[in-house]
Design brief:
Layout: E1 5-9, H1 10-16, H2 18-34, E2 41-45, H3 65-82, E3 89-92
Parallel strand pairs: 1-2, 2-3
Helix pairs in contact: 1-2, 2-3
Length: about 90
């Protein structure tokens, strides 16, 4: 038995805003849930602190732990509010 985990690329929230990222994640989860795929675990991150990994450094765009933490909190709150009956667990990758 395995439990699926969804990885949320933090670059979406950091570059385009937590609302856009939340909408993307909610849409993705709705597809999974409508197909009886019971996703419980979500991971926010993706090694976004290097020039090899846009959006960091693109057009002078940079961020630090404060922005990263705020983006994570906003996305997590929005997704959990959209699915109040689901036991969703979020992890933060730094």
């Amino acid at each position: 038995n395995c439990q699926p985990m969804v990885q949320i690329n933090s670059g979406i929230a950091l570059r385009y805003g937590a609302q856009k990222c939340s909408e993307y994640v909610i849409g993705m989860l709705e597809v999974f849930f409508s197909n009886d795929l019971d996703v419980k675990y979500l991971e926010f991150g993706n090694e976004m602190y290097g020039t090899w990994s846009p959006p960091y450094g693109v057009d002078g765009f940079t961020y630090g732990g404060t922005e990263y933490g705020h983006a994570f909190s906003a996305v997590r709150s929005a997704v959990k509010a959209h699915f109040p009956g689901r036991d969703l667990m979020f992890g933060l990758v730094t």
